[in-house]
Amino acid sequence: MSIHQPDSARHPCFNPEAHRAFGRAHLPVAASCNVQCGFCDRRYSCVNESRPGVTARLLTPDEAVDAALRAVARMLHLSVIGIAGPGDPLANAAPTLKTLAELRKALPGILLCLSTNGLALPLHAQTLAGLGVGHVTVTVNAVRPDVGAAIYNWVDDGGKRLSGRQGAALLLERQKIGIRLLKSLGVTVKVNAVVIPGVNDAHMSDIAKAVAAWGADLMNSIPLLPVANTRFALTSSPSAQLMHSIRAEAGEVIPQMRHCTRCRADALGLLGEDGQLDDICGAQPRAQ
Ligand code: CLF
Ligand code: SF4
Question: Does the pLDDT of residue 24 top 50, yes or no?
């Protein structure tokens, strides 16, 4: 199975045939997060760490737009500009939406993309669609609150911090509403799911069925990358064999992405390349 949305033909993540020809730029304008996933550590530096949630430094919207314009001018194969952290783009709605609005004006032909945990998605889905953000990724690691409670340390809903099943249930509800809303607005939706052995690996087919029923177009099962000083620091990554069987089973109900390279929040170029936006390196790491 594959997806056949017209704009996805040149999106390197949504179309496996496009990823050798088209690249993406991530603009790191989203500092904080409204969820704490048990596997995530967003402290960052320029020491060649390549995984989601890390960036050499944060950019203001103006800096981000300038960097994007320079990148597009020198890299003709850039087809997508995305906002993917280092925190959650919609937990930082002001800089994220300002950046997207400026980009839409300056680069009318570029594909705009965004990756979110979905907690604030119902609030912003309409605005995103209005700005022409044609591709959105929502990370859904659980579709049962008891499973989610083992993954999310807490969920912060406008200053109200919820943990355990309560937090996981709220996040799940927002993800469901948000994805359905995006689909009603014509946005192409991918679901990322981090596979954590012993926690949600046996739950992946339930996630696939649920998100397919919500209307999602594509699913990307991502093997856990254990990060020091997190809840899952000592959990092993799933084997290639386990990932193969998870994708095969999930692929019965929703198309699977199989070429994800787990990009940094400031990645630039073809998937697998971590080029740098001009002058992004050099700032000091920030405390979380
Ligand atoms: Fe970036 Fe994500 Fe858009 Fe792609 S990445 S915001 S959908 S333009 Fe792509 Fe990188 Fe995997 Fe993400 S390979 S981590 S799936
Ligand atoms: Fe990290 Fe994303 Fe989870 Fe926030 S939602 S804690 S940025 S993985």
Answer: yes
Quick one: which of 215, 222, 220 has its CA closest to 188? 215
- Is domain 6-269 in CATH 3.20.20.70, yes or no? yes
With both helix axes pointing from N to C terminus, report the angle between 61-74 and 93-106 in degrees, rounded to the nearest 10: 40
State whether the beta carbon of 127 lies less than 6 angstroms from ligand 1.
no
Give the three-class secondary structure for 153: strand
Instruction: Report how far ligand 1's centroid is from the alpha carbon of 2 (Å).
Output: 17
Task: Please tell me the predicted confidence (pLDDT) of residue 228.
Answer: 87
What is the number of the ligand 1 atom nearest to the C-alpha of 222? Answer: 11
- The interface pTM score, or ipTM, of the predicted complex is 0.92
Domain boundaries, the chain: 6-269
For the chain, the helix, strand and coil percentages under 3-state DSSP, each to the nearest 5: 35, 20, 45
CB-ligand 1 contact for 110 (6 Å cutoff): no
